[in-house]
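Reviewer 2 asked us to include a model.

Predict the structure of this chain.
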Amino acid sequence: MDVLYGSLSEAELAVARETERTALAPMSEEELEELHLRVRRLRDKHVSQYRRQAAARVTEAGARGAARTRNRRAADRAEVFERALARVSTALAKAARQSAAQLRAERLAAAAEARSSERPAATPRARRAPTAEPSTPAKRPPRKSTGRVKRDASTLAENKRRQARRDAR
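Predicted model (structure tokens):
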């Protein structure tokens, strides 16, 4: 793998080093997203470059298998960035899960605090005044899915066409 790093430019080498596990650990989610974008661009660049070169060499070599051996270094460079992208993607997913869990905990804590502040002073149940009606929310009919809406419209149109044929007789 060190041989491949020798064939990368300084900028590409710097990006590849940023994707090592020790370098990824202290990064924030935003930094990981930015790095993910840069690595994906480099991977796409090297993959498309590899494919273009391979396609050009097929005509020279006469077969894809024969052209593959001459294009091995370009394929290896694309593979370096493919693995780097996988490492960054994994770290980004981990950071996203952590931030989602943290936000969820904050939301639940805020909701619990709001619930506890809305409660009236504690009174024994026997002394509470009875309410006239139980407070149940108004029930709405269930929403129709887009497929159901289309099916209903189709049925209505079919019935109207059938009625129009009958009226025409």
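Residues 72-118 form the longest helix (47 residues). Residues 2-117 form one domain. We have added this to the supplementary material.
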